[in-house]
Amino acid sequence: MKFKVLLIGLFIFMGMALKAQTKKEQEFRIDEELFPTNAAEVLRPFLTGTKRIRYYKEFDGEKVSYEAKFKKDRLRYSIEFDQNGNLEDAEFIIKSADIPDSTFETIKNHLESNHQKYRIKKIQQQYPCKTGNASEVLKTAFQNLILPEINYEIIIASKDDSGYVEHEVTFNADGEYILSRRLVKQGYDHVLY
Fold first, then answer.
1. What is the domain-level CATH number for residue 166?
2. pLDDT score of 159
3. 57, 79, 121, 148 — which has fewest CB within 10 A?
4. Which Gene3D superfamilies match (predicted)?
5. SS3 breakdown of the chain: % helix, strand, coil, rounded to 5?
6. Strands 50-59 and 64-72, how do they pair?
7. Domain total for the chain?
8. Contact in structure between 9 and 15 (CB atoms under 8 Å)
9. Quick one: which of 152, 168, 138 has its CA closest to 70?
10. 133 in a domain, yes or no?
């Protein structure tokens, strides 16, 4: 009897662990009026000189969030807020040459040791809002500062036994591994950036 309870518990735990490693992302474009008011107010002072501002509602299988995507100073930004309008993170797309050499070498070593074959599709420099001070995080992100609290979020296509799959792999500012999630794209009604 104890063995059956232990076995059932093990299967439940494994199922939860596998679910946590999969990101079923679905984004829908929304009007600015549907974007959380407090998020729009925090973002407004930083929107001067932006082009193509778009607002999205995202569901990743676990939570609902809102994103504002735009182009500013030749960089493509994605600013994400939770459903209450609190800043989660600010990201922008970069190239591998924008990452310090030693950090990128550490990232490459991790990817090579954990994936048979892979190709980097996109790299984002991420400024998570850990302090709760959204204005300070946004100011830092728009200055493009490389600080110890930033992350690198890398989308890769890698080969496994079933074929090619996409993963979102997150590393800290030193290139140390934080998290990897398999991406399951649901469908988009916009250009990804």
1. 3.10.450.360
2. 84
3. 148
4. 3.40.1420.30
5. 30, 45, 25
6. antiparallel
7. 1
8. no
9. 138
10. yes
